[in-house]
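Support request from a user on the community tier.

User writes: "When I paste my structure tokens into the form, the page sometimes reloads and wipes my input. The last time it worked, I copied everything first. Here is what I submitted, just in case something in the input itself triggers the reload:"
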């Protein structure tokens, strides 16, 4: 701990509290406290004697009590430590070996063929993948090689899910919206534009290495786009259930499920086989 005389000697040499504290290895506010015996935040009313105490500057000292904050998780040495920790931790390695990002359960269980229910269930599966993507730290958060590889796997699963989800909506959902709802053309066009934006981001993401900051930026953009699109469609579903007869929604939902079930099986990009 620096002494009062050390701080005051530096002040006498013309240094301010920030520089004096830096040289002595203490925060500026602590250097002020050592020199004057008073807190830098200016709490309470100073007496005349305190105002003229040695080391007391003329200007406010409030800024000395709130030095700039640093984020240690953004430092390279912190990221390196996190990577080493993930590699050497036995429980973390075992968890990595057992990890499987694919959502559990049937995509369209028997008896669930109503159009908006089928598509909402598919939305929930994509949302679950987005949560996993967000929970895994990227390179900007010090993610390990295993975690970065997992992020790439989750993105591949999102792409796999949307590969059949969006064509089904384009073939069965949006034509029904255009015909059944007032302003349906506008709603369908807006939704299709959202899908084009998301598809472009997803394509760029799949062409980017998970160990890059660009991947993290694109992943964040994709999450925002997909969540906004899902919220938009949920609002459309409410109106569709009010305006399209149940039997029509059941027929369209069954057609969507049939298309999914007849689609070629896509190899899993990562994880256990069920």
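"...and here is what came back when it finally went through:"
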């Amino acid at each position: 701990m620096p002494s009062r005389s050390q701080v005051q000697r530096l002040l006498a040499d013309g240094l301010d509290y920030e520089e004096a504290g830096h040289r002595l290895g203490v925060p500026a506010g602590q250097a002020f406290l050592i020199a004057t015996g008073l807190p830098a935040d200016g709490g309470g009313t100073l007496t005349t004697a305190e105002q003229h105490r040695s080391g007391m500057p003329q200007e406010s000292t409030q800024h000395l009590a709130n030095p700039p904050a640093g984020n240690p998780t953004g430092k390279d040495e912190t990221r390196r430590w996190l990577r080493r920790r993930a590699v050497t931790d036995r429980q973390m390695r075992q968890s990595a070996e057992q990890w499987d990002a694919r959502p559990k359960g049937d995509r369209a269980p028997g008896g669930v063929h109503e159009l908006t229910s089928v598509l909402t269930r598919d939305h929930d599966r994509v949302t679950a993948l987005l949560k996993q993507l967000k929970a895994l730290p990227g390179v900007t958060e010090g993610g390990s090689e295993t975690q970065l590889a997992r992020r790439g796997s989750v993105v591949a699963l999102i792409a796999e899910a949307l590969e059949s989800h969006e064509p089904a909506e384009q073939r069965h959902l949006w034509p029904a919206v255009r015909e059944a709802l007032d302003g349906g053309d506008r709603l369908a066009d807006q939704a299709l534009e959202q899908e084009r934006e998301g598809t472009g981001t997803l394509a760029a993401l799949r062409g980017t290495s998970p160990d890059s900051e660009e991947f993290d930026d694109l992943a964040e953009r994709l999450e925002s786009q997909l969540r906004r699109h899902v919220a938009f469609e949920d609002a459309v579903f409410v109106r569709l259930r009010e305006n399209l007869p149940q039997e029509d929604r059941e027929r369209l939902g069954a057609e969507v499920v049939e298309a999914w079930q007849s689609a070629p099986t896509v190899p899993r990009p990562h994880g256990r086989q069920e």
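Agent notes: The reload is a front-end session timeout and is unrelated to the input. The domain at 73-262 is CATH 1.20.120 (Four Helix Bundle (Hemerythrin (Met), subunit A)). The chain is about 65% helix and 0% strand. Escalated to web team.
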